[in-house]
Amino acid sequence: MQKRRGRTGRVRRRRRSCDSRGVNESHRPEFIELKKWLKDRKFEDTGLVPACFPGTGRGLMSRTSLQEGQMIISLPESCLLTTDTVIRSSLGPYIQKWKPPPSPLLALCTFLVSEKHAGDQSLWKSYLDILPTSYTCPVCLEPEVVDLLPEPLRTKVEEQRTHVQDFFTSSRAFFASLQPLFVESVDSIFSYSAFLWAWCTVNTRAVYLRSVRQECLSVEPDTCALAPYLDLLNHSPHVQVKATFNEKTGCYEIRTTSRCRKHEEVFICYGPHDNQRLLLEYGFVSDCNPHACVPVPGASSL
Question: Is the terminal CB of the chain with fewer CB neighbours within 10 Å at N or C?
């Protein structure tokens, strides 16, 4: 016979349930505008709403219980920001004639900075308005803070910072070629801080989507796409999902392989990353991470 848990057990379960629930933020003006923008691009709501959760911050909450194999979100191709989006914009002719060809990552970063500068005139304003204004990635930290990080993380952060700075410096001539598109000086528009924001946006929020290679871009893999609304989904190492672009429906789709209760946060998994990788690439660490590990200096030589 199953043991009854009584009132105390019910209170504990209720408290745990309340602790995991978020505060619905779908009423906020920026999310109302984003939903309108998505609807105009044929996005169909699947029952997820933006919410603020204890511990993870902003994410997506399910209005109904989700079962294994159920569709979490289906985002039409028209909602995705890819290099094809960039080439079809006013930046396209400048990218097509620039030699050597810009990388796909540079094209995406340039588009983000340009559209953010356009403000209310940008066709992507509704999406840009819900993006973070700053990031917690170590590459954004002040040097004196980086000095406090343990090895080998500190060295990796310094290498990443150098890479991004070199990337920016090597791109300044390309930015200068875009001057005819702007009234203001491109030096003030494409500043290092603006470029860093765009780089972090792509690095932390893009989904994997292999695109047909554009002849006007470099041979580097073109595998990044920004996915409005979908990118509100937070990471958990304890869930698994199936994510793919469905050629038949023309949508980027995510299906869950686990259940989720009503009014709880819906998670996806960014990959089997340890906390060092998560902090370096995404700017956060995960509690109770099953992929956590402790680097041992000199272990490779043993």
Answer: N
